[in-house]
Amino acid sequence: MHASTPISSPFGEVPALEDGDVTLFESRAITQYIAHKYEGNGTDLILKDPIKLAIQTVWMDTENQRFDPPFSKLIKVALQENRGGQDVRQYEKKLENVLDVYEQRLTETKYLAGDSFTLADLHHLPGMHFLRSTKAKGWFQGRPHVRAWAADILSRPAWVKVAAMSPW
């Protein structure tokens, strides 16, 4: 298995992955494939119980539909890729609302999908890493459970290695 060139994606973008006869694009599809293929090696990132898996899927979809869109808008503004008078506060508010929902959830469980680290948490790593390097880090102060969760997931050894390569 190896990371492929952008041409492997029909959109000509990364990420893309080729593994034998399988060619995948889109990061969440790639992470699910890897988690299934390497189940039992390291941390199992996909829950097996149908109810727990459904809960995990809810939080994976929440990241994809609620956390990532405003985060992506804010990062483009922060990197000055998207100028034109966007209402940055609108995206900040959406993201703060998501963090409020996470705060409530994390009063009940250690991780979003339950008591173990799963893809629902892993998919947040790039966003949480970036947010903690901006003025948005203040958003964690009033949300102690989000702050503890972020500190936990961002301190995982594999992520620490990835983050060491980050410009943020």
Descriptive notes:
Pfam families: GST_C, GST_N. It catalyses: RX + glutathione = an S-substituted glutathione + a halide anion + H(+). It is a single chain. By secondary structure, the chain is mainly alpha-helical. The chain folds into two domains: 36 residues, no CATH class; 112 residues, Up-down Bundle (Glutathione S-transferase Yfyf (Class Pi), Chain A, domain 2). 52% of the residues lie in helices and 6% in strands. It contains seven helices and three strands, in the order βββααααααα. Strands 1-2-3 form a three-stranded antiparallel β-sheet, covered by helices on one side. The mean pLDDT is 89.
Distance between the termini: 28 Å
**Series of secondary-structure elements, N-terminal to C-terminal:** EEEHHHHHHH
Largest sheet: 3 strands, antiparallel
Poorly predicted regions are none
Which structural category do the helix and sheet elements fall into?
A: mainly alpha
Give a count of the beta strands, DSSP E runs of length 2 or more: 3
Largest sheet: spatial strand order:
1-2-3
**Overall body shape:** globular
* CATH class category label of the largest domain: Mainly Alpha
**What percent strand?**
5-15%
Rg measurement, Å: 17 Å
State the helix count: 7
Average of pLDDT: 89
Helix content: 40-55%
**CATH topology grouping of the largest domain:** Glutathione S-transferase Yfyf (Class Pi), Chain A, domain 2
Question: What number of domains?
Answer: 2
**Based on the structure given, which CATH architecture of the largest domain is correct?**
Up-down Bundle
